[in-house]
DNA sequence: ACTCATATTGACAATCATTATCAATAAGCC
DNA sequence: GGCTTATTGATAATGATTGTCAATATGAGT
């Protein structure tokens, strides 16, 4: 019952590359659409599976958008960080938040909570999308 | 196109009360089940609508669980705030985070983002659950 | 209390992201 | 080249949420 052997398929690699060519967070559906438009016959379920694998292998970051979608992004920095995300085009900026890290620790400790984790994401409209939205 | 007048129905009040009788975050489905078990013939769609209204009226807090469900909770303190939640028993503490509010605004503005929103939640083990977990 | 214009309800259908099926395929190993 | 079995992908299934719309109830006006 050891770890089931992983195999290398062009599908996995295609998803990895497609993620890498994208700056922001993308949904599985969107990534699948991009791949198909690029001529790949890859299946939707496979994209979902590949993204889930990449996320558990810490090769991709994942978060849920305000409307419940699961979004993925190629992992650039390996350390702990947070994101500023355009909810229109997906443009993402990695942000440091030392003050927030400390605050989270403190507030948890103050109330006797242990093993504290936190979810901190900022969503907005990037400069470009803000202009577009202004007709 | 002024604001459409709101009417008071026993359904709205039932949802409000059911929320108040619950300490932690609950899903619309769960709250509907509780109400029906209590003898109320309220409809599921109505519970969804009532909860959405309460949330927009800042009478209830909402957040999405790690698996994508929308959860609601009666609001004890008024105004914008965040939550410290025990991931074992659901105990919830409302927390102020003025520093985080300012940080979120600044970081968004610094990168030219507008209409910034943020998701900030702290999950951990409360004091009681920490003791239990210590065998 | 009666009327009326309309906000609200609720059973049900529709949507939408995600997951489960499962036969067909292909990766890695001999 | 064969064998084992992880992987794929078309499709069905799931499950939470939202839309539909006729029937109902609310609140203001009389
Ligand atoms: Zn944008
Ligand atoms: Zn952090
Ligand atoms: Zn607890
Ligand atoms: Zn805040």
From TrEMBL, chains A, B:
Signal peptide: none
Cofactor requirements of the protein: Mn(2+); Fe(2+); Zn(2+)
Any one of the GO CC terms: cytosol
GO biological process terms, semicolon-separated: negative regulation of DNA-templated transcription; regulation of secondary metabolite biosynthetic process
A single GO molecular function term of this UniProt record: transcription cis-regulatory region binding
Chain ranges passing through the membrane: none
Keyword tags: Cytoplasm, DNA-binding, Iron, Metal-binding, Repressor, Transcription, Transcription regulation, Zinc
Cofactor note text: Binds 1 Mn(2+) or Fe(2+) ion per subunit. Binds 1 zinc ion per subunit.
Family the entry assigns: Belongs to the Fur family.
Name this protein carries in UniProt: Fur family ferric uptake transcriptional regulator
Source organism of the structure: Alpinimonas psychrophila
């Amino acid at each position: 019952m050891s770890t089931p052997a992983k195999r290398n398929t062009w599908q996995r690699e295609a998803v990895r590359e497609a993620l890498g060519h994208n700056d922001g967070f993308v949904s599985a559906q969107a990534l699948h659409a991009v791949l198909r438009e690029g001529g790949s016959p890859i299946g939707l379920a496979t994209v979902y599976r590949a993204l889930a694998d990449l996320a558990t292998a810490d090769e991709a970051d994942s978060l849920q958008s305000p409307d419940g979608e699961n979004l993925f992004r190629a992992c650039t920095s390996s350390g702990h960080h947070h994101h500023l995300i355009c909810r229109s085009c997906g443009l993402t900026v990695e942000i440091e938040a030392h003050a927030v890290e400390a605050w989270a620790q403190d507030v948890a400790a103050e109330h006797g909570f242990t093993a504290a984790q936190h979810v901190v994401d900022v969503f907005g409209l990037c400069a470009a999308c803000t202009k577009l939205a202004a007709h």
